[in-house]
């Protein structure tokens, strides 16, 4: 009689090795954190509303991460730490290396898609994503299938550091390589482009079309905490939101919230890391071979 009771653990290991074979250099490691750090959501955070908004999002709707219910949509603040940390070298990843692990709950295809986001960053910089070595690496990114797509900004120095990438719900998902790359850039120390201190020279934020509860999501980043290293403003940045971010009605084409001063500018892409994104990343992490 055939044994239908294959141990699941073994199946998972075999699948993980398959991912490894496809993406050598990026081992997909599934890890259950024995001492998870509690995630403290901001006051008023509504998990069900986030899941609903993402599941109802139309394909040409707003960028998926803007629906995640946190500051600027997708930034989880650790209230014990200063934010907008890109100037703070303590928040960088040591030796340009970002150890990572997946929490259980992703399919192999989803892990491959997320790893594609890492590969995208690795291709144009000296940043290295690799599987965490438990007991050796103090800090690592812990990719979890929670509600919404979000990340903290910079390395927090607290061990397992969550990046949430919600799996598909009725088609809309955070598990897309460009979304993953956006969230990983937050974890590497990036803030949003359209909130840069000089943004008013390049875009107009039309507050009449912004839902009032999201006004603060357009607060500019302070020059004290953040620098663009003199790299010019970048409409093409993967960290730039789209024209309908936090709109009162994103389905109404007239209700734009971010209007580029350059009429030909395209904003809100999530398919690539721009040249200027890479430039800043490579300056920040001293990737001299890529500059
Ligand atoms: Zn973001």
Automatic annotation (TrEMBL):
InterPro entries per UniProt: Astacin-like_dom, MetalloPept_cat_dom_sf, Peptidase_M12A, Peptidase_Metallo
Domain Peptidase M12A: 84-288
Binding site for Zn(2+): 182, 186, 192
Gene Ontology MF term list: metalloendopeptidase activity; zinc ion binding
Signal peptide: 1-28
Cofactor: Zn(2+)
EC number(s) on file: 3.4.24.-
GO-annotated biological processes: proteolysis
DNA damage is among the record's keywords: no
Keywords: Hydrolase, Metal-binding, Metalloprotease, Protease, Signal, Zinc
SUPFAM superfamilies: Metalloproteases ('zincins'), catalytic domain
Note on cofactor: Binds 1 zinc ion per subunit.
Active site annotation, chain numbering: 183
Zinc as UniProt keyword: yes
Domain of life: Eukaryota
Stored Pfam families: Astacin (PF01400)
PANTHER family, alphabetized: DISCOIDIN, CUB, EGF, LAMININ , AND ZINC METALLOPROTEASE DOMAIN CONTAINING (PTHR10127), METALLOENDOPEPTIDASE (PTHR10127:SF780)
Protein name: Metalloendopeptidase
Organism of origin: Cloeon dipterum
